[in-house]
Amino acid sequence: MIQVDNITKRYGEQPAVNRLSFQVADGEILGLIGPNGAGKTTTIRILCGVVKPDAGKVRVAGYDPGEQGDEVRSGIGVLTETAALYPNFSGIENLRFFAELYGVDDPGRPDELIEEFGLGEHKNRKAGTYSTGMKKRLGLAKALLHKPSILLLDEPTSGLDPAGIAMVLEEIERLNTERGVTVVLCSHVLHQLETVCRRYVIIDRGQVLAQGTVRELAKSHPGPCVVEVDTDYDLDGDVYCGVPATRLSTGHTRFILSSRDEVPRLIRELSQNASVYSVVLKGEDLQSVYFRLTEGTQDE
Amino acid sequence: MNRRAVIAITRKDIRSITANIQVWLPMVMIPIFFSVLLPIIVVFAARASKGDIVSDMQIILDMLEKLPESSLKRIMGSLRTDQQRIVYIMFNYLMSPFFLIIPVMIASTVSIDSFVGEKERGTLEGLLLAPVNMLSIFAAKVLAAFLPAIGVSLVSFVLFAICANVSAWPLFGRVFFPHINWAPLVLLVMPAVSLFAILINVFISTRVSTFQAGYQLGGILVLPLVAVMIGQFTGFMLLDTGILFAVGVILMIIDYALLRIIVKRLDRAWLFESQVR
Q: N or C: which end of chain B has fewer CB within 10 A?
């Protein structure tokens, strides 16, 4: 379990993290999201015990990262934005080196991971010649060397191609379901997070703006509910049954409702007059909620 | 101390040196010049010059007459010709600073790179995020500079001894190098002076933002101190072996005190916050 209690960290006068509090339960996948400079990376570094908070308490798997850093680092796998690999060493040499640092006793573990992450063919090439995506995959393999119970992943899919993204997200899901690994995931690509994260902490300027599941966040921060319907109804005008509507293309109409509770009534009425092939709720996804929450704060 | 991690980091750092010809070639070429070419040139010059070199070095010969009683003075008295005395004193006394300069030179280049090099290559973050305590990381960085410095210096010393004895064989007809006073120099003083330079340079490496800045700062802070040590010890070479051993032990004690002070000031969070972007 990870417990962050009222932590503050300043760099000079500027607070990078300001009275931040959240928890991550064992076996949970948490999305830590926010704009650039929100304090996500500082938070990850505090959890790893390489940055000390000026105030507040942190516990990771029962240890205080500031005082028992090596105990914390033994149990967590970290993927940083740069992956921090040795450019003049080959992929497999990098993994073997870090396996020694993390006290991995299985000599086959580096080879096993490099194959698993699709780098087997390139394992003897210098890591400095790897593409961004390959470096990211090698970084992930490095984070998993010692079979950690907690994974802290900072932008794990940045630089990856669609197949790489799918592979990484599947791997995170698999580790979580099969081994109960707790994951904290920082990313800007919100729709990717939605496929794996159960809960989110949205931070900005070092403070928590909101936390909860997408449903909880949407409920506590309601906005217009946008519904896109694939139907053969021929919209005439810009209102349908008192609901503002826009024809996007032939057979494709957008309705703007004041809340999701109005969706069933709208669809019932529409199906009486025409065929309805699909309904997509747009205003209640993570991205919409996130933009509602951070609206204005980024411009200030 | 995490021994496994110490070995891994040391091995990794030494491999970084040996994998780059631009780094290791100067480290090997300069010692080869000192240990192979220089003795041959010196003996050749001494034998070819006949009386000229003797008159040029008369001041040194006169000074040796005034030396306090020591094994070196007794040996000098037993030599038959001035040529023998000059070659003997050149090899056994005047060239001793080379074997302090060689390890300090290698040690300084490697040790300055220890932390700031990791920072410049973007790998310091990965190292500090590993479950390895700072003492182990520091020890590995010190070892990675110490082992090549001492290794190259010892090989140089053996080559120097072979070249000196072979080239001067027609003059002495026996093995004349090294004098017993080289034992404390090689076994105690050389490692102690190297370690001194390494400790300060590694500490500097945790504080500077670039390798170049570290090299400059290391040059300003370490070289004058090491120059004083080398100068003082060269004088001690004329004294008895026991005194030389005592000097070596004192230098080791200074290193130990320095090590304790530096280890107390090692702080992972400070290093991370100041050196990682």
A: C
